[in-house]
Amino acid sequence: MSRTEAERISDVRQVLEAARTLVRERAELAAEIARTTGLSPEGVELAMTEHLETTATDAELASLVARAGDAPRVHVILSANVFIAALRAIAIARAASRFVTVRPSRREPVFARALVGALGCTEITLAENVAPMEVTGGEIHVYGRDETIARVRAAARPGVVVRGHGAGMGIAWIGPGWPVSEAARALASDVVPFDQRGCLSPRVALVLGDEARAEAFAEALHDVLGAWETKVPRGELSREEAETAARYSETMTFAGKVFEAPGHIVALAHEGSVLAVPPPGRHVHVARVSDARSVASRIAPLSRAIVAVGASDPTEARAFAPAHARVSVLGQMQRPPLDGPVDNR
Amino acid sequence: MPELFDRLACDLARFQASRVEGYGKLCRARGVNLSTLSQATDAPAVPTDAFKIARVATFPEDAAVATFRTSGTTVGARGTHAMRDTASYDAAAVAFGRWALAAELSERVPVVVLGPSPNEAPDSSLGHMNGLFVDAFGLPAPVEHTYFISDDVLDVAGLDERVAFAMAQGREAMIVLATSFALVHLLDALDDAPFRLPQNTRVMQTGGFKGRSREMDAKRLRRDLARAFKIDERQIVLEYGMTELSSQFYEATVAKNDAPAWVYVEPPWARVVPVDAVTLEPVADGEVGIARIEDLMNVDSAFAVLAADRVRRVGAGFELLGREPDASPRGCSIAIDEMLGR
């Protein structure tokens, strides 16, 4: 029997309640998450207490339910995601269907498993594997890289709906309205969560103004990220991240100016140069923009990947942000309302 | 003579640091004292990415006589390598190409290129090099009988005609210059049919597939090519080069009877040093590192280039192991490779 909107919202609220329980009783869980994710214990604490979407308004949940559709069963494949993303993924699946199967990410399985366990609901189950070709009906929600999504789509049987949620990145717009120190503080609070491994995490900052303003911003961001390092140290980088970061540092030392500390890199590019995207791990590419009207063309090559734009003035940013991107004020990029998928592509 | 190599390399490092602002900054940032520098590996290498976002040249833009660009489509940028004089590039390429591909050929031979003509791809360093080899080793032939890719289409019939003509003339050797993906397209077009080449033919194979053909295992591709061409596998010679360099590396299987396959050798004026991808320090002999390429022909750009390919020293040469295997990234932040679609 199909559920009413109110029943669906109620079911989603149970998912949020389970998450709140995990947060309240997080000591052991947080330690285990730190071990598997590579985040520092402080980084896990920050994510669980500040960025896990344990509350939502009725309007947000109504939106989430409306966007989720209706399916007899949803199979959730978590392939590449930050650990807290399991909550939104399960909430969306639960909104769409009474019956949900969750295959946790092999890299970050702990939170998803704990959340399903805390729900204690026979209609939401864990699976070690979900083979798309064996799914005979309903929907598959896959969270991961483009190639993973493509593989699942190719393997899915006719009639099975595959909803892909791909990887992405954020960019920041530092317009004329804010002092650079304030903008740097806000941006840093978007960069630090999940050590910048989220699809909303900003990796490029565009600063409107002259060279002095761009440099002042880069320096301020370097200072603020340094201060964050003492409160919430960066966790361990993967070998691949460390290698790409070393290469990025060499490249930008040659091609710009680098402000580097053990826990982060801020690189200031010359005006007009191609936007380089640093690897995750608290690395920010700062580029000067002398004319706001040039931003759209400047970011065009990255447009497909940009899922979030943080701005000192979101109204300004909407003029150039890709239509699919979430636009928010700086400092709020990692706090998207629970109104649907974070990825609107 | 490593001492001479280092002396020349250090002179280049000093010259480039004084003329290329970015390289001067890189040397200062890495604490390199250029006045006392005596080992080339102590000087920093310029990552290939820098060629995409900055100018890497010791001379003003208007002095460039040739500008080569990478083929990869990246986030709005192609790597650019400008030259104010190609004479040393040309001489070095022909000298080492002759050693690797034309050994024991006493006369000019038909040279065919499974690639566009230099006129069609004027900013391709590979196209430039192919043109040099056609001029240096080849019998005179019109462009349409030399270059067999135009507008991305491989002219198999034209190639067949040129080969048949060479065979009818009793030619014992040809030189075939080709990208890996062009060779795959040729095999696909042949559909298992033989395509006999003169028995002493040498095939230079370069580059990866770049999504322009189906991917093929390297050993299988070699086996299938040798079978189709009716030549020994050792006559198929891999070349490794890149736009950012002025030198190339080859398997020595044609030049030396006992040279191992799959091992590239350097000309005396270049060397490949595997370095740790994080510390950028040389790794122990026999270990895998990313390629730091010291190229004394890169006089006006960067004598040391940090490539993204993994390599391992083997005897007197090195193995090319390609890019890092695709590691599963943490989180859902997009990977740079994914963004670039590579």
Can you give a write-up of this model?
The complex is a heterodimer of chains A (345) and B (342). By secondary structure, chain A is an alpha/beta fold. Chain A has two domains: 5-165, Aldehyde Dehydrogenase, Chain A, domain 1, CATH 3.40.605.10; 169-329, Aldehyde Dehydrogenase, Chain A, domain 2. Helices cover 42% and strands 19% of the residues of chain A. Chain A is built from twelve helices and twelve strands. Chain A has helices at 5-24, 27-37, 41-51, 58-68, 85-96, 110-119, 146-155, 180-191, 211-231, 239-255, 295-299, 314-318, and strands spanning 74-78, 100-103, 124-126, 139-143, 161-165, 169-174, 202-208, 256-261, 264-269, 283-289, 306-311, 326-329. In chain A, the strands form two sheets. In chain A, strands 8-9-10-7-6-11-12 form a seven-stranded mixed sheet, sandwiched between helices. Chain A has a five-stranded parallel sheet with strand order 3-2-1-4-5, with helices on both faces. The longest helix of chain A is centred in the middle third of the chain and has 21 residues, at 211-231. Chain B contains nine helices and 15 strands. In chain B, strand 5 (149-150) and strand 6 form a beta hairpin. The radius of gyration of chain B is 20 Å and the shape is globular. The two termini of chain B are 39 Å apart. Chain B is an alpha/beta fold. The model of chain B has no long low-confidence stretch (mean pLDDT 92). A six-stranded mixed sheet of chain B has the order 4-7-8-9-10-11, sandwiched between helices. In chain B, strands 1, 12, 13, 14 and 15 form a five-stranded mixed sheet that branches. Chains A and B meet through helix 10 and strand 8 of A and helix 2, strand 1, helix 3 and helix 9 of B.
- The H-and-E topology of chain B, N to C, reads as HHEHEEHEHEEHEHEHEEEEEEEH
Query: Helical residue percent of chain B?
Result: 25-40%
**How confident overall, as mean pLDDT of chain B?**
92
CATH topology of the largest domain in chain A: Aldehyde Dehydrogenase, Chain A, domain 1
Strands of chain B, count: 15
**CATH H-level superfamily title of the largest domain in chain A:** Aldehyde Dehydrogenase, Chain A, domain 1
Low-pLDDT stretches of chain B are none
